[in-house]
Amino acid sequence: MNYQKIIPVVLALSLTTASAWAQNAQSVIAEASRTMGVEGLDSISYYGAGTSFALGQSASATGLPGPRTNLSDYRRTLDFVHSLATTSAVTFAAPVTGGPAKLGVFNEVANASSSNNWSLQMQLWLSPWGFLKGAATHNATVAPQTTNNRTLQVVSWDSSVKSPAGAAYKLVGYINDQHLVERVETWLENPVYGDMLVQANYTQWRRSHEGIMFPSMVIESRGGQTLYPIQIFGVQRNPSQLAQYLQPVQVPGATAAPAAAPPPPPAPPVAKAEKLADGVYRITGGYVAVAVEFSDHILLFEAAGQNEARALAVMAEAKRVIPNKPIRYAVLSHHHFDHTSGLPAVVAEGATIVVHEMDKEFFEKALGAPRTLKPDAIALSGKKAVIEGVGEKRVFKDAQHSAELYHIQGLPHAEDMLVMYLPKEKIVVFADMYNVPPANDPVPNPPVIGTIVMMDNLARLQLDFDTLVSVHAPTPDLPITKASVLASLGRSK
């Protein structure tokens, strides 16, 4: 057999197949663009109403969306020529701890031409029209996928934006037999989820008087959790008011709502330990952590904090004041991401992460996910998270100390909340259930529900304590006593 003749034929067939795939991708993109009215589309603005659910702030790690903020006068404007995207809405939301709802505005501006923030830039390309425009100029590929007797054309392309690891962010779109983009996916780095899946689903399509096909319903999710369900009422093609729509919305009397993609956190303050009792230290400089010394190890309550830098600072300070002992246990008060985003550093430390048992499976899956977009301490160390679940009570004890963990039942803020009780020191350590009220208004009216739930649970558990330590330090930073918390509720006992 003449292999010298066969090899060129195989190579030619391979090149022909690759060329056919590329040609097929362009035909699929072109047909969808004609159907959806993308040809000649320089910009688009659409309006409606919807909801925003806070990522990583839900009452439970799985099964429930985060706190809800209603979005009225919702408008998103996409300028494909100048790579600009803006989103605005008027909000009316109640604080997660209870209290009256407040009028606010939500403004988000993405400049894809100069910003390397993919969480903002992806808003251009996640849109069904932007996805097709990007696919037409970024060497897209296509492959059919059949699911439930439906065949979709799966179009993929790499953006020009690079992740912190240097790889291009990828987009994948699913085009149905009506030549409509019904789903677009990308991935975004996240300290808890790792390479977090971002999905936008488009349904209930309509045609505008200008010939634009648009979805009446958009549902964006991250990490499998619904984040933005938006109902679209109408669209404008190449709007003459483009410059006006690209400006932030101003509403008299409204406060600014936090953007969906907050800026990077500043450098954390220096972690500083203060002695509460022999072998017990309160570590300040950010979210407060408490270190407890045992005979051959350290237990840290609230070790992870807001980010890896804070977790590293807390662990270093704990080992400074309690030298020559490893951090064996890192207890999470609850799953909220502002309390757990430093977990990669804790995993790399080799500490066992202690959570309420309802969170165990969630964190095992999340912390075990790939972390290629932005390699963190988990990826760099190669270590696997070790997680233990706690039910209603867990006791850590030796001849030196005793630390007891208890589950707070029925808390609206988080169903998985744990507190730590130190019986010898008569101290309770807690998070997110009580904030010191202003001096001129010592008794909130109505009282904060979370504080009521906490104190009722501590009474149910019959814990004998005098002092409380909050993960969120008071301002000014003063001791919190049982009597002062009861007084904030108008109680004496």
Summarize the structure.
By secondary structure, the chain is of the alpha+beta class. The chain folds into two domains: 18-255, outer membrane lipoprotein receptor (LolB), chain A (Clam); 272-488, Metallo-beta-lactamase, Chain A (4-Layer Sandwich).
Can you walk me through this structure?
The chain is 22% helix and 37% strand. The protein folds into two domains: 18-255, Clam (outer membrane lipoprotein receptor (LolB), chain A), CATH 2.50.20; 272-488, Metallo-beta-lactamase, Chain A (4-Layer Sandwich), CATH 3.60.15.10. Strands 5-6-7-8-9-10-11-1-2-3-4-12 form a twelve-stranded mixed beta sheet, covered by helices on one side. Residues 3-21 have low confidence and may be disordered. It is an alpha+beta fold. Helix 5 packs across helix 6 (343-349).
Give the topology, please.
Layout: H1 3-36, E1 43-53, E2 68-79, E3 84-93, E4 102-111, H2 118-126, H3 128-136, E5 141-147, E6 150-162, E7 168-175, E8 181-190, E9 194-207, E10 213-222, E11 225-237, H4 242-245, E12 255-256, E13 272-277, E14 280-284, E15 289-293, E16 298-301, H5 308-321, E17 327-331, H6 343-349, E18 352-356, H7 360-367, H8 377-381, E19 387-390, E20 393-397, E21 402-407, E22 418-422, E23 427-430, H9 449-460, E24 467-470, E25 480-481, H10 482-488
Parallel strand pairs: 4-12, 16-17, 17-18, 18-19, 23-24
Antiparallel strand pairs: 1-2, 1-11, 2-3, 3-4, 5-6, 6-7, 7-8, 8-9, 9-10, 10-11, 13-14, 14-15, 15-16, 20-21, 21-22, 22-23, 24-25
Can you give keywords for this protein?
single chain; 493 residues; alpha+beta; outer membrane lipoprotein receptor (LolB), chain A; Metallo-beta-lactamase, Chain A; twelve-stranded mixed beta sheet; 25 strands
